[in-house]
Structures are given as structure tokens and as C-alpha cells.
Amino acid sequence: MASALLYDRLQFAFTATFHYLFPQLTMGLALLIVYLKSRALWTGNDHYHQVARFWIKIFAISFAFGVVTGIPLEFQFGTNWARFSNYAGGVIGQTLGMEGLFAFFLESSFLGILLFGEEKLGPRVHWLASVMLLLGSWLSGWLIIATNAWMQHPVAYRMAADGTLHVTSLSGLFTNDWLLWQYPHNMAASVATASFVMAGVGAYYRLSGAHDLYARTFLRTGLVAAALASFLLLFPTGHEAGKQVFTYQPATGAAFEGVFHNEKGAGIVLVGQPNMDTLTIDNAITVPWVLSILVYQRAKAEVRGLDAFPRETWPDNVPLLYYAYHIMIVLGTIFVAMTGTALVWLWRGKLFDCPWLLWILMLSAPLPYIATTAGWMTAELGRQPWLVYGLLRTADGASPLVSSGNALFTLLGFMSLYTLLGLLFLFLIFDTINKGPAASQQPQPAAGDR
Q1: Considering its fold, how many domains does the chain have in total?
Q2: Which residues, at least 6 apart from 5, have a Cβ–Cβ distance to it below 8 Å?
Q3: 229-251, pLDDT tens digit by residue?
């Protein structure tokens, strides 16, 4: 049974991680598409229409793969996590059902209008369709994050006579303290992903000497959005989300910061390796007092260490949690430094003719995917050993009739199938990028791009 649980967890982790590669791009692109369609409507410059059409194509490809890879996640609640579904289905079924019924159909319907309805509906209605696409994609994110936030910090529920949980207040569910910071942090990460991809494509075009006018627009738009999103990822969304962990999941906070013993004036570890035998950080480079200041706004405040909590409530893989958290933090800091530097070069009018910086921007396009994956690993590893924090342990949520052999078979099947899907996705994306924004005529330069 223990091996079956391991394979169940690995399968959901793999399929969820792979699936989220696609919506993290589309949710961010939805906002940028609204901006581009708005610029087109305000200026009357067809250049921005052409730019928006190109990114709508990228959105459509990513959306299609997100749908294909998202459906198996829903089925796994029944096949691999039946006891969890029976226990908490009265809560999570509400948010997941609304996501499918309202947000998904809103998003998919208006994506169809954006793809095929521009000539028939005109620019104003087409702009409105982009706004509705944004609403649908961000509503979808809200409902999914509301589900996860409830699992992290369960609120607004009651336990029925049969031991199952049910919602007592939708407003309480949607005003969960955890949700109110997790959601903006997640959406800032999505915007950062889309913005880095847009800037990366622009850098690629500029370096290759292709589609120069579009390259400039991609770089300007993507870089400014990436800088804003990167800053928001660190503050206030990341800072406040981290403080919530120490409030509601203090053992998790201690684990990802590498605090094993109670410390007054706790420092923040810049470099070091957690040693679970000695419960110390080996080769640590620490900045004193910073953690106490960040969490409690007092330099001498005491931060509780892992040994202040029962061992059975510790996250079950402290080193992996610690490394995932620090990868996320390091990349987030790099994003701020990188985009800040590029903005200075852009402001000085030197970015478009600076090959070394363009190379950095192009090669950095995948980094937000790594940072977001590390962030979700931090959240999910940190919640362990609980499926619903403080209420249902992960070991008690798996399906009792699924053997380890069955779980391993489907895990290998998903890995094989998703490898093929990933290759197909990359082929379609690179083919679309290499063809470039198809324009029927040479657009007039926008004022900011001359």
C-alpha cells in the first residue's frame, strides 16, 4: 500500500506539473492580449492588431494542450484519490464544478471568437472578446486556487454525520485568508511567464534580423510587464504569502527556511544544505536577523524551529522542500535584477542593439516555468503530510483498491504520452514563431517603436 501511495503521488505530481506549464502561459498572455487589443483600438494602428493575432495563436495552442492534459487530473480524484474525494468532495466539488461550468466555457467560447470572428464582428466587439477571455482565464485561476487554498487552510466547512465535509459559506470559501495572497502571487507568476516568453521571442527576432518591428514591440511590451510582475512576485504578494505560511503552517515555514531550532533574531540562509541527521544547515551563509524582521517585523523576534513541533507533523521531505523554496526565491530575485537592467538599457535606447543582453533575455524565457514549478513544489511539499491541512493525511486519502502495479502502469503511460505531447507542443510553437506574425501588408511603425 505504501508503494501504491508513492506512485499515486508521483502520478498526480507529474501530470499536474506538466499540465500547469500551459495555463501559466495562457493566463498571463490573456492580460497582454487585452493590452495589445486596447492599443490597437486606441491608436487605430494595424500593427498592434497583427501583434495581438500572433499571440492569440500562441494562446490557442497552449490552451488546447492545457485542456488535453487537464482532463486526466479531474479523473484522478476518482481513480487514485477516492477517499479524499469522498471526504472533501462536498467542498472541492463546488469550486472545481464552477471552474468547469463557468470559467472554462467562458474562456473557450471567446477564444473561438478571437480566432475566427474578427472580420465579422469588428474591432470593438473583438476587443470585448479579449476582455472576456481574460475574465474567463483569470476566473478559472481564481476557482482552482480557491480549491488549493482551502486544502492549505480549510475554512467555511462543516462535518456531516458520516464524517464528510461540506461548504457552509461560499463567501467564506472565497475570502479565505490564504487565497487572498496566493491568488495574486500565482497570477503575477503567470504574467511573468508570458512576459518573459514575449520578450524572449522579441530578442530572438532581433538577434536573427527577422520581423524587426514586431521584435521591438515584443521587447518593449514583454519587458515592462515582466519587470512589474517580477517586482510583485517578491513584494507584496510573495512576502505576504510567506508570512501566512508562518501563521497557519509554522512547521512548513521553518522547514523551507531551514530553521531546525527556535531562534531569536533568526537569520535568512543564503547558501547551505540541510542535514537531517544533525538537524543543522551545513556550510551555511546567513544574513542575521532578516527572517525575524520579514516575518514579525522585529529583529529579535523568536522564530520557532522544526523541533518545536511533533515529528509526525513535519513535511515528509524537508530537503526537497528547502531546495524548491530557495530555487524559487533565487530565480525571483534574478528576474528583478535582470528586468531592471534591461529596462535601463531600454530607457537609454541601447537595448535593441545590445546582443549580450538580448541573448540573456532570449535564454531566460524558460526560467519562469522553472520558478513557478519550484513554487508549486514548495506549496504542495509544504502541506505534507496533509491532503487537507490538519484534517486529512495524504496516506488516508488514496484509493484503497488501486494497487502499486496499477498506479505504476498508469504513471509510465502518462509519462510516455506526455513526452509525445510535449514534443508536439514545442514543434507547433517553434513553427508558429519561425513563421512570425503574418501580416497582409507592412504595418506602420508605432510612435514608441520608431
Answers
A1: 2
A2: 394, 395, 398
A3: 999 999 999 999 999 999 999 99
